[in-house]
Amino acid sequence: MPLEGKVALVTGGGTGIGTAITERLVADGAKVCITGRRQELLDEVAGSLAAGCVMPCAGDVCKDEDAKRMVEAALAINGRIDILVNNAGIEAAGTVIQMDSSVWRQELEINLTGPFLMMKEALPYMIEAGGGCIVNISSLAGVRCVPGSPAYCATKAGLIHLTKQVALDYGKDKIRCNVICPGPIKTRMLDSVLTPMADALNTDLDDVYGRMPKNVPLRRVAMPSEVAGVVAFLAGDDSSFVTGTTIMVDGGTHIVDAFASTVSDFGVNWG
Description:
The protein has helices at residues 16-27, 39-48, 64-78, 101-129, 150-170, 188-200, 205-211, 224-235, 258-265, and strands at residues 7-11, 31-36, 54-58, 83-86, 132-137, 175-182, 246-249. It is an alpha/beta fold. The chain folds into two domains: 7-185 and 222-252, Rossmann fold; 186-221, no CATH class. Strands 3-2-1-4-5-6-7 form a seven-stranded parallel sheet, with helices on both faces.
């Protein structure tokens, strides 16, 4: 149990990738405080794991007072916080012209300001304890543009650079800060994004998921547990000299040239 005795805080722990991360950290020996805006989802996750391993704490990462309270809840477990995973996020569709400015601001607050506030509250305790590990969950959309997603892409790109800044500023305090960029991961969030596409194609989600991986080198969509495994690696001692790093968990999607792949779709090898 490589994380035995460690205390972790996972935002957005009530669903999808956040739940998978929580399950993996608990399996590796950590005690975890999970946060999110819906208490019932947090309670469901906590109830599905061994008693005493998970503490739910409802709150909004956008609010200063909630960020402070959530960090304090994690500290209450064992007087320390060793691991912070900033996973909470939302995705709203719409081009720059189509998107209402209130939606832009909400996405900016949750996806970028939220991690900033959580790190701002957690870092002093990590420094006092002699070190800590932060893992931020960005997206493939942070390094590649997705049609009609300016707010999501911009905030996820910002999170990548914020990660590097924290790694630079606090490395001297033995703080490691890394970022993971998942590609297509089968979650409720992705289901909700793809449902309108399925409707437009007059088909179902299974068919859309079957079509998506055509240009993914590994030819499939990932499961949340595959992101959780990378988080566990970054949280443990095996990554003790890894910081400021962006890890792509996307089946190799980021290496694909979209134009050349389109040519290949016609049965012709590029070049």
